[in-house]
From TrEMBL:
Residues annotated as domain VOC: 2-115
Protein name per its UniProtKB record: Glyoxalase
Pfam family, one: Glyoxalase
InterPro entries: Glyas_Bleomycin-R_OHBP_Dase (IPR029068), Glyas_Fos-R_dOase_dom (IPR004360), VOC_core (IPR037523)
Superkingdom to which the source organism belongs: Bacteria
Organism, as annotated: Ruegeria profundi
Record lineage: Bacteria, Pseudomonadati, Pseudomonadota, Alphaproteobacteria, Rhodobacterales
């Protein structure tokens, strides 16, 4: 099984697909009224569906962002700024990763996350002429106040918990699940040693930002997930759809 797509309802699928192709190096393909964009490989695509518009990111909603993992965030940011895309200044965020953020033209949040911590990036990690050549949609991030229910659902579908990351300074922790048989290098699920390994995975990981007991609202333009290999459509722990790919 494989997490194969994130479903988003947008105002103009064709135009937004063009942004992802031009600015972020994805491949775009029309599928009827929808447009599917993504990178080659095992990671998930974005399925852009008509009927949305007016999306505003809200920290009180279930859906948060996608994370695009790249070998060199600085090169990726330079390329985006050359194209007139506004991007936050990259920084090493605690012992989580070297990252920055931007929004697509319809307001959906994108995180750029480097394979290695800022101090550990190897020389010539990426080709300056093609900074997204080794990019991957590494994370789809949802928010939850009940990680036990999310854990039970993910495990029931055959996903494995790969990492838990404590962000106590901001009052939450992060939980990462994937369809994989891989085992993190450190058996301690909380270990910092697993994080750079996690950012290098070629598949998409489902990330939960967990604020214990918090209540989140549905995001109307988030239409759920697609899983290749799933036999029938189901509802996740929050009630959002998960459909066969």
């Amino acid at each position: 099984m494989r997490l194969s797509a994130l479903l988003l309802r947008v105002a103009n699928p064709e135009r937004l697909a063009g942004f992802y192709a031009d600015a972020l190096g994805m491949t775009a393909q029309a599928q009827g009224p929808n447009h599917r964009v993504g990178y080659a490989g095992q990671d998930a695509d974005l399925l852009l569906m008509p009927g949305g518009g007016g999306y505003t990111h809200d920290g009180g909603q279930r859906y948060w962002k996608i994370g695009i993992t790249v070998p060199d965030v600085d090169l990726a940011v330079s390329r985006l700024r050359q194209k007139g895309v506004e991007v936050s200044e990259p920084k090493q965020f605690l012992d989580i990763g070297y990252m920055c953020h931007l929004k697509d033209p319809e307001g959906f949040v994108i995180e750029l996350l480097q394979h290695d911590f800022q101090a550990n990036r190897p020389l010539n990690a990426a080709n300056p002429a093609a900074p997204f050549a080794k990019a991957c949609i590494g994370q789809i991030t949802l928010r939850t106040g009940n990680i036990a229910a999310e854990d039970a659902f993910c495990r029931a579908q055959g996903m494995r918990l790969l990492s838990i990351q404590d962000v106590a300074q901001l009052g939450f922790d992060l939980h990462f699940y994937a369809f994989t048989d891989e085992t993190p290098p450190d058996p301690d699920i909380w270990s910092v040693a697993n994080r750079e390994w996690l950012w290098k995975r070629p598949y998409t990981v489902l990330e939960f930002q967990h604020l214990s007991g918090a209540q989140f609202a549905p995001a109307p333009d988030y239409r759920g997930l697609e899983v290749q290999g799933l036999a029938v459509s189901v509802r996740d722990a929050f009630g959002d759809p998960v459909r066969p790919g």
